[in-house]
Design a protein that fits this description.
With 348 residues, the protein is mostly helical. Helices cover 72% and strands 0% of the residues. The longest helix is centred in the N-terminal third of the chain and has 48 residues. It is extended.
């Protein structure tokens, strides 16, 4: 009886566990879908940016983001190589830890330089760019608060990745073992995981910044952009000059004399103005044909000069007139090798 009484509770527990697993997969699916949609939206934004009006306003800022993306991917590739070496059983005897340690030390240097660059960029945004955008575009207040918070999380993820790199370097210098099953394999994997998590968060942050700020930034009116420019200047930063308002399209000149002449022409031929409007497409074709008729005909290409006829030379290098036989062409070999020249003459 005791065994049978536990079966309903086990089945209930299993159903609850299955429900939780299903919920987790739904969350993963929804997050993945949202992530891919954000990437696609960002790609479309970047494609349009090259031809968008006022794109020059964000050019320097976006170029810094792109340099960060390249450096993040380059470091990920280097760290993945180190992790592969430390995890490969074949390297246990083929490669010494001393050969891997310098690579890890280089990664630490690159990480520290990148962190310094990112901190400078974040400081510029927090002290100059974001306040100027808040003052100019109040609707950006919530996205800017979120981006501010992400800067703090970025710094924390940086410290985790850098700590993992120092732990691996220390292990390589002291434990003298790499390859599958070694403690340095675990440390190298921890470094790769920490850096990939940092890289993914940094890329998502850069993408979120651009999606949130670029449309409003390049869409500012000229007076609003001037205020933005002044706010940035007060913080000690220069930005691209505010563009001039685009010139108004010229209006067609409506001349009373032209209207009268047109009406006289229509009356002469018994054509109503409504008929002219109804045949606007035909009028366009006639105008195009008239314009083409006025164009000068293209000049005929100049004839190519005839290729020069090959000349025969005597043994002294003088040009020989084949129509005036002389001693050099009388067939006397002792004179000018006449037999050879005779063959040339026959080919003429």
């Amino acid at each position: 009886m005791g065994t049978n009484s536990t079966l309903p509770s086990q089945a209930s527990s299993q159903r609850a566990e299955n429900k939780e697993i299903q919920s987790q997969w739904i969350r993963i699916r929804d997050n993945t879908t949202a992530h891919m949609a954000a990437i696609e939206t960002h790609e479309r934004l970047r494609e349009r940016l090259s031809s968008a009006p006022n794109a020059g306003r964000v050019q320097r800022w976006v170029s810094v983001h792109d340099s960060m993306r390249r450096e993040l991917e380059s470091m990920r590739s280097k760290i993945a190589f180190i992790e592969g070496v430390c995890s490969d059983a074949a390297t246990t005897t083929a490669v010494s830890p001393g050969a891997v340690a310098p690579r890890v030390d280089q990664i630490i240097g690159r990480l520290e330089r990148f962190m310094s660059l990112l901190e400078d960029h974040a400081e510029f945004e927090e002290t100059a760019l974001f306040p100027a955008l808040r003052a100019t575009v109040p609707a950006l207040a919530d996205p800017l608060d979120e981006l501010d918070d992400q800067h703090g999380e970025l710094h924390e993820r940086e410290r985790v990745a850098l700590h993992a790199a120092h732990v691996l370097l220390s292990g390589l210098e002291s434990e003298h073992a790499i390859g599958a099953g070694s403690s340095n394999q675990t440390k190298a994997r921890a470094l790769l995981d920490a850096f990939v998590a940092y890289r993914d968060f940094a890329l998502a942050h850069l993408r979120h910044e651009e999606l949130s700020l670029i449309p409003a930034w390049i869409g500012m009116t000229v007076p609003a952009y001037k205020r933005f420019q002044e706010t940035m200047a007060a913080a000690g930063h220069s930005v691209s000059a505010a563009p001039q308002a685009p010139p108004a399209a010229p209006k067609p000149v409506q001349s009373a004399g032209f209207a009268a002449a047109l009406q006289t022409l229509l009356d002469t031929h018994g054509v109503r103005l409504e008929d002219l409007a109804a045949n606007a497409s035909l009028l366009s074709e006639l105008m195009a044909a008239n314009s083409a008729a006025k164009k000068p005909a293209p000049a005929a290409p100049a004839p190519k000069p005839a290729a020069p006829k090959p000349q025969l030379l005597d043994r002294y290098g003088n040009v020989v007139d084949v129509n005036s036989p002389g001693c050099c062409f009388d067939g006397v070999d002792s004179c000018c090798k006449g037999s050879a020249y005779a063959r040339l003459l026959r080919r003429q």
